[in-house]
Design a protein that fits this description.
The structure is a homotetramer.
Chain A: E1 5-6, E2 11-15, E3 22-28, H1 38-48, E4 65-67, E5 71-72, E6 75-76, E7 81-86, E8 101-102, H2 108-115, H3 131-149, E9 152-160, E10 163-164, H4 186-199, E11 205-212, H5 226-235, E12 240-245, H6 256-259, E13 263-264, E14 267-268, E15 276-277, E16 280-281, E17 286-292, E18 302-306, E19 311-314, H7 328-351
Antiparallel strand pairs in A: 1-2, 2-3, 3-7, 4-7, 5-6, 8-18, 9-10, 9-11, 11-17, 12-17, 13-14, 15-16, 18-19
Helix pairs in contact in A: 1-3, 1-7, 3-7, 5-7
Chain lengths: 361, 361, 361, 361
């Protein structure tokens, strides 16, 4: 209830600050019998890891995850899985200059007022470094979903600043440092990032997350609709300011005759709904889009105040991404996977007895 | 966990189908000592109620709510509050024609596949009629927030189809049937609705919800951020396909130097963030936008299938809104109020000891 | 979280005061496809109902339960089930004499101090009248457990005051007003009750609850062990002051060589454990005992204080049971059934994939 | 929901197996501003630690806890606290002899059937080694309760086998290896343990846990009564088979005139209720008793079966306590402290507005 847990049956609880000793999480409720090693998580951790490309922060973290429990002889046992990543590059530098400073666009001011104290080193708990554990836990969900149910969860960068992709070639996504599915836009992204670096500024981004081969029936009426829970889990990612399911905000100008996805015996004719009807998966691809704000960690000077009630100017030096949206791709995948996994377990908990002869389309 | 509950400390659990005997809800965790009568809820219920204007469905429901428990001598007692609304206009008409039909854009197919059985009368549990109880519960939250903490939660229609409002005059909202804050757009909305009625079609809408006078500090890191929980509660409203906090999807093209809300001793200079930083309320107005899809209950014929695996044509006759977004205004207010109320109680549960001398801006 | 809900996947939330308009509950998470009518609940409600025998309170309540939602054409639909029982015999008598009085052994003082206000009529929310809804919800669980899984949950009175039963004849339990499985003790119980009535006093009781045909595997390590959750649900019944699983407090003087239930290929040789090992059901009968205190609603004068800070004498007149333990028999069954049902759904949520070739004994 | 979490606002989630790499836990919801170091936990960990006395198992574990997050400059920050204890004495011995063996009285059979796989080394997750993290988390709760609210939680051994204590001298408890408050019984306990060691057998025990200076008002009607949640948390301790609140099972033979705790302006005259009325703390001492079964890890040969469906004989060699109840003293304190802490936060979450002029007695 204090917010560091997500999920009901597949539950992930995390801890750890940006410049603390370690990050960790506990996965509770993972089905037993799943083969699992650190390698299964390391791939996605590496995709999210800082310092892997010139486009992202140069902080060097190995992000090596260790499984501390819940796996025996290479298989999950059904008991709680403890995961740990040690922080190796905290750089115990002097933080006295930002100790009292409320950086605009950051959580400094709100954490300070909420708790009275805060770990000001690198944002403490509010740092996006926390998302490493989401990616680790998400990798477990992704493996289970893929291996046992054939469900695949993938994401890509669909827009950065004014540059939008024009096509989706799944093969391209891992071929460039932007998780960009349109090879023709890679240069434009590259150019934009260079420009921003030079100017010491940052830019927002749009990501698209897709889950394919999802069975019909996941999601609970009326508050825990699948789309509501997906909105929750995606909006919980640092910097996300908007979530769309399917056509999202485009529906405002659509007609009902245009939006409804007509059905034939061969399947749905369209997927404006993004794979969710009445809060329950329809069997079509789950499609979501998220908007990530430009980071406020920039060198353009800004006005702010201190915890002592003084005016101040802020410049955030250090190792920061001009576009935090890029590295959010594996995070978005992780969050969607965790939510689908949770709903899959919840669905069969209640409905394992159901037998229906109606054909699924 | 089965989805009919929202909130942790201020918990709302609902039941009821469109054409069942009654709708009801239990509010658990309401602070004691709040003066409360049915009238406090009836105003918002009437705002949501069908049949109150020519622009909305003509189903006639009194929507008279009864308090069954939890209130004694006009005051909440701190124990669970039972609320009931009897369905009076179910019109026990013949539903055999849609019994086997999966209406496109509706939850018919997904409920059927999930549960094996479904109450097909008027959508059963998936009907927006369910939202009446949200409004009733939300009215309790709104009263507490306003009376004890001075927090106000209001919403309005900001777009319908291609027609957007140009200004927000709070006084106007209750002066027209569209909850439109821009008097100059009322005629355009009216015209659009008439056109749609004639064509038997429907249209999407955009709503804006604003909470003012919210204290700094509400929201929990890292998964139960206030924005994540607001996204969840707003996305759980029928027909919502997108949620934005603050600038929402506009952030994609913003620069960090532009988006970050700089702070001065007189307060924040802007509110691009929508009143939430790091998942915690900043003391600025909470601002959210939602996109509602056009209803699929239209008379334009559409293609679909039946539970027996046959092709079929569907035309939805009956008493339906051409724009379901209009009546969603009080619902959106209710959901935001419930979420804020919950977080207010959660915040003080953990942090009641906190004393900070840092000035709030 | 505010306490009026029990269960995770099979969730029961209740409302209602002793002298309010109605009692109600919402069952969320019931599997779909279960045939269910009011009759299925009425039998247990009648067993718990006041006024049915000369041994229990003479308050006359029909306790007629109405299903308001979640059941369609005689079958559960998987959506939330709303239940309602109207209070018909509130007797709007004058309560001004106890309005300010804190009756010893009751919740008057604690509710008053916790909430600042309380519904003093008949104990309000703290009255055992609240348990009617537990019995109704428990009947749904009992039906599902029996019909789909063959699990049976039954209870009996095993001791009242110093009178203990010597044998358990399941056929006898419904043959007498005490739910006593030992026909030879019925007269002694009858005599004890008569004596207490004459003296205006009350007595404690011990109940035994047994679930048979429970599959191996229900219960979650480490905090939500089946025994821990059973202890929770049984201790939540009014007047319960102790819970034992299996041999309970007798284990203090047992040797390990005596207590451990040895296993053979024909099954366990004994059942000291009460059917739970390591918090997980073993496939043996689940056996629990509970101790219920003597009610404080007696006519023997007692010393107390008022909410105004004055000394006072209290005598509780009215329609009260000399032994509240008797009517608790169906309540205990209901609580055990609700807990087993919840764990059954939770177990299959996580472990539906498990295939083991090891024989179950 | 998968069982490795306890509490709602003060939440403790644990992981770790007996012979795994490490044990850990996450405390979520701890109020900020509490001074906290490893030392605050180490004292209780040492009290629970194996190998500290000749009466308990000789496994040597340093049980050194490390704080990984949530504490900054010696103070809790309000964010999740990560704790870790590395297993140092796993003794990677050969477990092939018990790999297929279901030890009677243990969780081997039930875990195997539930999950299909299990970590058989030393009981894996079902080992009481898991309780180290409960003690660590409990120490945080104990410190907060004591320092901020003056609440003290203490426990002692009240019976082992047939030997019962006759008096409670709080000063004595830490003066002997049995946590025995009656100096005159220490020799009898010592003799009993020696005898059992010689015979290779074990014995049960009874513990008493007391919380003093608890404010009136903690606990939630109707399912999350304080006594119900205490029963849950105490019954979740390994080997516990019974829980009593106040007079517990003695109430069966009590009269109402005897049991009800009469009230005067100077306070309650007695405390039969154990400090809880109607599920809510009364301001008196909270008193609970628990019964712990004799461990089945004994050298007396016993009959059992294997996972292959064969008969077998079992003798448990190794480093085991003849009376596991002794070391459960700090565990029982921890569990009661966690539950009180949770309810204290929950209470003020809902009821922080309450002002009552009625004097507390």
């Amino acid at each position: 209830m204090a917010g560091n847990t997500i999920g009901q049956l597949f539950r992930v609880t995390t801890f750890g600050e940006s410049h603390g000793i370690a990050l960790g999480c506990i996965i509770d409720g993972c089905p037993p019998g799943l083969s699992l090693t650190e390698k299964d998580m390391q791939h996605d951790l590496d995709r999210r890891r800082p310092g892997t490309s010139k486009y992202t922060t140069q902080r060097r973290e190995a992000d090596e995850v260790k499984i501390l429990s819940g796996v025996f002889e290479g298989q999950t046992t059904g008991t709680s899985i403890g995961l740990l990543i040690e922080n190796t590059d905290q750089r115990s530098k002097d933080y006295s200059n930002i100790q009292d400073l409320f950086r605009p666009g950051h959580a400094d001011y709100t954490y300070h007022q909420k708790y009275g104290v805060r770990d000001y080193r690198g944002g403490g708990r509010s740092s996006a470094r926390e998302t490493a554990m989401r990616v680790a836990a998400g990798a477990v969900a992704k493996k289970y979903l893929k291996q046992i149910h054939g469900i695949e969860v993938r994401a890509y960068l669909s827009q950065m600043g004014a540059v939008k992709i024009d096509k989706v070639d799944w093969e391209q996504i891992e071929q460039n440092a932007f998780f960009c599915p349109d090879a023709d836009k890679v240069d434009a992204f590259d150019e934009l990032i260079r420009k921003l670096k030079k100017e010491g500024d940052s830019i927002g981004a749009k990501l698209t997350v897709v889950a394919s081969n999802v069975p019909v029936g996941l999601g609970e009426p009326v508050f825990d609709r699948l789309d509501a829970d997906v909105a929750h889990s995606l909006m919980s990612i640092n910097a996300v300011k908007g979530v769309e399911i399917g056509d999202g905000f485009e529906v405002i100008e659509q007609r009902g005759s245009q939006h409804r996805d007509e059905m034939t015996l061969d399947g749905f004719k369209t997927n404006h709904a993004g794979g969710i009807l009445g809060g329950i998966s329809s069997g079509q691809n789950i499609v979501a889009h998220i908007a990530l704000k430009p980071t406020s960690s920039i060198t353009v000077p800004g006005e702010t105040i201190t915890s002592k009630g003084e005016s101040a100017e802020v410049i955030t030096k250090g190792r920061h991404d001009p576009c935090v949206g890029i590295r959010a791709v594996p995070i978005a995948e992780a969050m969607l996977a965790i939510t689908l996994m949770d709903h899959l377990l919840r669905h069969r908990g209640q409905n394992a007895d159901v037998v229906t002869t109606t054909p699924k389309i």
